[in-house]
Write a structure and sequence with these properties.
Blueprint (H helix, E strand, L loop, with lengths): L18 H11 L16 E9 L2 E10 L2 E7 L1 H11 L3 H19 L2
Antiparallel strand pairs: 1-2, 2-3
């Protein structure tokens, strides 16, 4: 930090309309005499959720698209973990099965 002193950098994300309130909270509850504010933009995938059937149960899966193209298939961790605990199968294997089944469902839907 200034003059080589140690310091902590705090970053806060919030909606622009809450900027003044967030700044007031930081200035009131910290030792700083000032802060910098900037607007950032966020780009995100369009998404949908599906449920896929596996041999021992169902798993929710998030599907992410960018520009209409599939870019992400992400099974819900808690669903996969629960099936792994129930069956004794490795979590990684449940996750892989869910991804594979979700891709099959997506392929069928796009035909």
């Amino acid at each position: 930090m200034k003059k080589g002193r140690p310091g902590v950098m705090l970053e806060v994300l919030g909606p622009p309309e809450k900027g003044d309130a967030l700044a007031a909270t930081i200035l009131h509850h910290s030792s700083t005499f000032g802060l910098r504010r900037s607007l950032v933009t966020r780009q995100k995938l369009s998404r949908e959720s599906i449920r896929v059937d596996l041999p021992d149960g169902q798993v929710a899966v998030k599907i992410g698209y960018f520009g209409g193209r599939l870019v992400r298939v992400s099974p819900e961790y808690e669903d996969c973990r629960a099936l792994a605990v129930k069956t004794g199968a490795p979590l990684r294997e449940i996750y892989r099965q869910a991804v594979d089944q979700a891709r099959r469902v997506i392929d069928q839907k796009n035909k």
